[in-house]
User: Fold these one by one.
Assistant:
Number 1:
Amino acid sequence: MKAAKIIIVCLLFAATTRAQVATDAKMNAFVTTLMGKMTLDEKIGQLNLPGAGDITTGQAGNSNIAKKIEQGLVGGLFNIKSVAKIKDVQRIAVEKSRLKIPLIFGMDVIHGYETVFPIPLGLSCSWDMGEIEKSARIAAAEASADGICWTFSPMVDIARDPRWGRIAEGNGEDPYLGSQIAKAMVRGYQGNLSGKSDIMACVKHYALYGAAEAGRDYNTTDMSPVRMFNEYLPPYQAAVDAGVGSVMASFNDVNGMPATANKWLMTDVLRKRWGFKGFVVTDYTGIMELTPHGLGDLQTVSALALKAGIDMDMVSEGFLTTLKKSLQQGKITQADIDQACKRILEAKYKLGLFSDPYKYCDEHRAATEIFTDANRSSARQIAADCFVLLKNQGNVLPLKKGGTIALVGPLADNKENMPGTWSVAADFEKSISLLQGLKDVAGDGTKVLYAQGSNLDADSLFEERAGMFGKSMHRDHRPAAEIIRDAVAAANQADVVVAALGESAEMTGESSSRSNISIPQAQQDLLKALLAIGKPVVLVLFTGRPLAIKWENDATPAILNVWFGGSEAGDAIADVLFGKVNPSGKLTTTWPQNVGQVPLYYNHKNTGRPLEGPWFQKFRSNYLDVSNDPVYPFGYGLSYTHFSYGDLSVSNSSLKGNQTLMATVTVTNDGPVEGKEVVQLYIRDLVGSITRPVSELKGFQKIDLKAGESRKVSFAITPADLKFYNADLKYDWESGDFVIMVGGNSRDVKSAKINWTK
Ligand code: BGC
């Protein structure tokens, strides 16, 4: 029986491989024939990706671009919205250009299209790969219905520094979780790339963009290859393994060579080591920026980028304007250009654009498949699963219906900031504010009093920035004490106070680094005044980064972190506040006590002077003025119920070779309601040929338990889970002792020690 199964699987595999070889051969023949007809200018034109200018600046289509399209000097366009506009532009390419090569249309569809899901950092906190894949699937369905066939997502940059504003766009600090999410997103966007709702993904920002020095955007990174391979590169590789169609080069310098000109990254690692077959695009003006990086003029850096392995030039027009000259001068070869051109044409072929350039331009779909009730209800449910309950002393939450709630804070009655940083296709007017959501869910029997209570900050810097991106905040020009007084008056009449505080959407995201990661002082003052009344206060925290909220945590009975939850955020938050949904999100970043501890991450090295050890207290790896502890560890998040963990049992404490170890723990819901728990598996490799982290996430399961229910949760561990890149960058495991840990977060675990030899 087993043998028969194996034979069937082998036959299926062989058949699939044969079919793939045949498709590849067909594509190859098509592209080779087409390239045979192309002039040098037309080939270089395929490598050119201008921005449409239309979304970001509000200007209409650029006629200069139309002329270039006619001449075959454009390969694609990005951030142009609507099926009608895209169809018009595509028509120029396929009717007026000599060879009628269709354009690809890209967009930053990062966490949803018009139906917006939580920011990626929030989505990652669901630890639910099915939901994450579904969010990408819905985003692809909506974007493809509106003419888009390529998204600049997933962003999988590991980030351990909350000063860096783009931490909001990624999946947190862990390479294992980041890799699972990278795969889920690629699957969700691409499907098998043949359907009308399948769009091409672009994993970014390759590489190490999240390791920018001092958390300052676009800043330098310098890192040992061992650290890169073990901690930062795995999510990009996971996306490649999942078949991602394109890769975006990052802006930053990597060990002395910016990624855009880094041959080692783009060719040696990406193509030779990982076998990537798609195309590489620069980030916005990535080639031009090589000049201020200090690598030479536009001609020099364009040649460098092409030679390094870049195929498509976003915005700089360095390829378009200089490659011909570089070819004539022998600085690049015809083969370099042909190779890049071939990769772009192959991507268009895979998307089916040569068979039907209007495959993604279906007015009926555009009218019926975007921002639908079904998509919005998925977004609401997924958002609720991303919120993280950070504290709930005295069970202030869930709120009871009936009575009076005072809703205060600058983020309470605001629609525009709900979707979060990357929501280029969204209509902010359509998103649901928290005030609206509370009213929707509480119903008529509950009185909701509202007062703004404070501005975002004492000065208007953050508000102006939010306004620039259409996410305006209302500014109250009265003295702060007067604004607070209104909120205190509302709170005095209420049974419970809900304070919607934190960051606005544009305080994180691109070019939004902060050196101070606290809640702005004006809002802290409001919170202090509310706490002084003595009524129960719930802090609903909006943020795109881990914030330093030690005093807020010490002083406030309940804190629900809601990130930026997308277009349905208001309703989703209210669902959780009233207990319609039991929170189950778990943090994917460590939350520091203060910015001086940064970078603080759970999977750090032990050092030679750890806290536990014989050293005299002062001479340990610590600070004089703060402990090494975070406020909330990686993996942390509470529920309206309570889960207890029994002892960890392992199937064997001494293993040899390719065996499988079963690690089992009984998890009990010993609280009052049904709830979901993310059971997490960590491993520590106690002795290695190089130093190893004190803990590494190696698996997780999200389980649903009824009140009173217990379940045995088992993890199957094999030597593959023990592998790491050694000093020679060889990926293997080493014999020795290991600690297996299972728990509800990275700090509170049950553990067992084992020995495993080769
Ligand atoms: C960002 C990318 C984005 C690109 C195109 C850049 O500024 O770094 O993440 O995909 O713009 O909009």
Number 2:
Amino acid sequence: MTVLVPTMGALHKGHQGLIKRARALDKDVIVSIFVNPLQFENKEDLEKYPRSPERDIEIATIAGANEVWFPEYEDLFPEGFKTLGAGALGNLYEGASRPGHFDGVVTVIDRLFAIAKPDQAIFGEKDFQQLTIIKAMNSKVEIIAVPTVREFDGLAMSSRNARLSESGRDIALVIHRALAAAKLAPTIEIAHEILNTTLSTEPGFDKDYAAIIDEKDFSLADKKTENRRAIIAGWVEGVRLIDNMPMVGR
Ligand code: AMP
């Protein structure tokens, strides 16, 4: 029995959390490391994506991986391979800003599953839209979600944080501030307002979107929505950052 933890490497404590969750299942743990060009619509972002394979092997092994798998492009995408479609949710939010991104994600996940044949696979809530789309793939692989691992000050761990300067990192904290403040709001309308006004206090944060959505289909949430979540994306120093948080219903 095998559990797969798909990653793009530059491993951090967020990935370690996923690997530890996999370890707890008492199965063979495979960590895949592949920077998937199909899911990068921006060439510069792909080129600048941090890579640290030796350190990754160490981190994954310490966290409990039995195997660290570095697939080759040709193994995953043999000549004539077909790109899969991510469906309607693939065109919203992250998908609207990054056309083709989620098609690239579902295509690589489908191939990783086909080759590694895991029984289960672990994904982070950090990429909540991705998690929702992968669950909707309805593959035979059971998808297990792990909550977002954060730095001591709330910043969501991300391989991209390594590209921020010290002051950029300070600016990025506004994302968590906005999410945490919105969570305390007495109504969904006020939560929405707080989300946006908090983000606008930080001129260094270039907002892409901030919304409170229904976890089911990412339609805008209202007070009747059972499971709502605030989602934010934007750029700091040209680095794209995303985060999200469940909102309590009021
Ligand atoms: P990535 O290497 O960024 O493609 O991420 C690989 C997996 O790790 C995905 O399932 C992510 O959602 C998850 N992940 C990344 N950062 C975090 C985090 N801070 N907390 C929890 N999971 C994370």
Number 3:
Amino acid sequence: MGPVRIAVLSDIHANLAALEAVLAHAEGQGSLEAIWSLGDLVGYGPQPRECLALLRRYTFQSVAGNHDLAASGVIDTRAFNPAAATANHWNAAQLADADKEFLKSLPLTITDDELALAHGSLRDPVWEYLITLPAAIGQFQRMETPYSIVGHTHVPLVFEDAGEGSLPEYWAVGDGEIVELGESRLILNPGSVGQPRDGDPRAAYAVLDTGAKTMTFYRVEYEIKRTQAAMHEAGLPEPLIKRLRRGR
Ligand code: ZN
């Protein structure tokens, strides 16, 4: 079997322009076998239905994020900040019943021999922000696989297990960086397609190559103005529109 390329996308957040740019970038370098998502397909952005329809044209699997569960009525938006809650209610109102059923059906974790996927973490798939050393240690303790992939923080990051008694190493991953899936146990976060929060407004994603055993991280320019215009049109909260340009 030849190399298998899987696009690893997280926190798309109904940003169709960003999703299209990322898929064009990924497919420009070779065929994609599948798309894996770390959740938060909807929420914040202006085109939830269009994003779901596009993703479902691929061999696609996703875990559930907090925004997916809120938009499909599984959880309420009490724990959301007011702008996020407003945008989530608007997103929910755009979705067809079949979209909501699809979101409701998403598992909290997906695990195979080598990889575990969760939106937040294995300990708390819906809510935990895996961005601190204690959170990373908790994740490594729970991992029954050498590698795990998470989202939710909207920051591309890798944690490496440095072994018993040592704190995990971690680093922010840049555009074009290749991470080898080798001996060390790793937690990988591809960052957010639809609402980056590391100060770089470009869409973030990664490609997993199961032949080469690598994950390559990318940043892709997209038409931010197109998404912002659609958000204005929808009457979505102004701070959510502005933050796309800042990448925070
Ligand atoms: Zn998110």
Number 4:
Amino acid sequence: MSAPRGEFTSRFGFLMAAAGSAVGLGNIWGFPTNTASNGGAAFLFAYLILAFLLAYPALMAELIIGRHARANAVTALQSLATGPGTRWFALAVGFTGIITVSFILSFYAIVSGWMIAFFFDPLARMLGMDGLAAWLTTDGSLRNSLFLILFMLLTIYIISAGVKEGIEKWASRLMPSLVVILLLLILYVFTLPGAMDGLRAYLVPDFSRLADTSLLVSAMGQAFFSLSLGVGTMLVYGSYISKRENLPVIGSLVALLDVGIAVLAGMLILPAMYVALNSGVEIFDAQGGLIAGPGLIVSVLPALFGTMGVVGVFVALAFFALMTIASLTSSISMLEVPVAYGVESLGVARRKAAIVVGSIITLISLAIVFNFDPWFDRVVTYTTEMSQPLLGLAFCVFAAWIWNRNGVLEEIRQGSPEAADGWFFRIWPFYVKFVCPLAILVVYFQ
Ligand code: TRP
């Protein structure tokens, strides 16, 4: 039917790719402010529990189905079907996943484009091109269009090179750089006045907030978005894992890396915000909460960097490089979902599939840029709050209700022969069958 499938060549390569998908704007931007405005360490505590008890089992469902079928999301789900009804259901879920992830990419690319524009801002100022710098940091359709196109070109370039030469190679380069930049920035910000107040706001728990259901709901939503669940991303990455790998172990490493980097990002963002406060930058919004939306990244932090003089130029460069890297390793995992389908099921050459699908998504993105106010928020809400949780539910149904237990066990046994007696297989089926679907429904109807 098509060319031989790609495969990750090492455990490290897979971990970097999957952690790269998981670690994105959601971790560096969403998680820290969510934590600070929801009771600090109390939220962190809820998040850690939910991530491991609910998101990790759902992640495993995708990885196991993917590696079992060794195919894109549509074909993989169809291979589990037991009759015409479930076959049809598989087709519907697979396609909804492809469409959802394409729309997620279409808004993600716009925001990632801002990160690239802000990366060039300190360079322009260093070269004395203040007019250019002002243009780069002012919201406008032309700037947004150019930078989202640039971002999509990078994404298409990596995906057209394939699993090994594209995804694995770039994730293995970019993710270690991300960790190094993050650690250096944290160390630097810790030396500045006000940083410790931020750390306190981040980490001192307000346990009374745990009784608040909205806290649990946002922790759960954060965990699902952050682990890239529900749209077939992890399923497709799972399909490129060697049969010799121990799935429960590498799945938990991915979850640990994702959570670990989110927690670290909090140690950068919150202290940085309080350092900004210390230098006279406004960090609270009209309701008295921390500024968390676009304002945080495009006004609070740049204002802070602006107070740092020459050092600020390098800090700004490092910070927006960090954001761009985090975005790019996530966006490639999104584009891979429709591309894998085009390559395997429609027989299109990978390069062509990447260019065609990437161009369509770029056009959707451009349409959103030119109709920003009515469309942007709507696309975010429909994809991440409505479609993604329901699809997550559907993946759990496939793994635990449609597929049989023996099939799952067979798949885990490859690479982990002792699986049947391990803790994972004692708990996981129950979770995916009952706990995850129920939890997703509860969150959904909130
Ligand atoms: N997890 C990424 C983040 O935290 C975003 C992401 C990548 C994603 N792939 C996805 C979100 C698929 C939803 C679905 O930013």
